[in-house]
Predict the structure.
Amino acid sequence: MKILFISFDADPPYMGGTSTVVNVLAKYFKRIGHEIALGYFEDSEHPSVFFENKIKLVKENYDQAKLFILNFEPDIIYNTQAMSTDFSFLKSLPIHNSVLISAYHNKPLLRYYPIQSLINLYYDSNNILYKIYTLAKIPLLPFWKYKSQKNELKKFKIMVEESDKIQLLSQKFIPSFRNIIPYVKEEKIETIGNPIVFNSLLPINELPNKHKKVVVVCSTNYQKRASLMIKIWAQIEKDTHFSDWSFDFIGEGEEFNKIVKLTKNLKLKRINFLGYQNPELYYKQSSIFLMTSRFEGWPMVLMEAMQMGVVPIVFNSFESLPDIVTDKHNGLIIPNNDITQFVKQLKWLMINNDKRYLIAKNAINSCKKFSIENIAQKYLSMFEKCISDSNTQKNKLWEKKE
């Protein structure tokens, strides 16, 4: 089978969760004998070395893109950038023998520019004129919200109309998707969760070697609510029972300066801001993982933490969470926005070493069902069915012509 992935032109660590999934899947498919290639829309500062066969899919590169498609002849085009795709351009290429699958690797929702992002831009700038310009935008936010969501709805409609199949990350996201596109046919939607990323699970016998560390791996943006993590940790530092615990924060982003300032204002001493790092070593050392996101699709960092025996404690803010975490079995689920309960359960985890060990063990074992072998087989089954359905449809059209 020949599979053209549409994603970012990058390899780890210069990629986000969706691109990481593409990278993991592509490596596995290549290993078992399938041909793979990459299509991308924008040049990268760190171009992919793994994808040797790749093409920039933009109008300015039409002739090269057309030749590339003619030579590669993809059976499947797996598009993880459907909301950014110029489908009229893509369909102008010779892909009539390909099946086009659009994957939406997040919670289906109509996005808009939140006021928090403007405030972050205001705080991060040292230019007084830019600060005034940023503040002047705030009264226009209702208009921009309307315009952004209208544009987002248009993209969803085009994605559904132009794709042979829509892939979501969980069955539980289908109602949200139908709220946006009510007329989408049931048979057009497929749901497959993400695979684990690291090549192996943490051996159970290494769990006793873990340190009294809490870890977070995230971008400090509006979605992740990083400031909540700082406020939660502040409650831990106030309690002298937990003076031997520390907090490693891996990641940066638009709110980074804001949360560093908050940390200083709260006079926190045991939080370490480590910037962008390969998190695997930190997972291996840490005991507890925090997630306070407003929403998620299928968070790769959550899977990474569990794979490495780090007990997750997560706000119940996204529909796919129960597919990954069972409360008190392989992690803790906290009612969304209940900071008091979050702190209480975090302290419970810190105190109860035996329970934490058992939950960590269960977290590792529960990741086995998300192995690349299991998840890739679901993808291959979807690909094969799509190709079979496409061929059946073509045969029917030929019969009608005859």
The two ends are 30 Å apart (CA to CA). The chain has a mean pLDDT of 91.
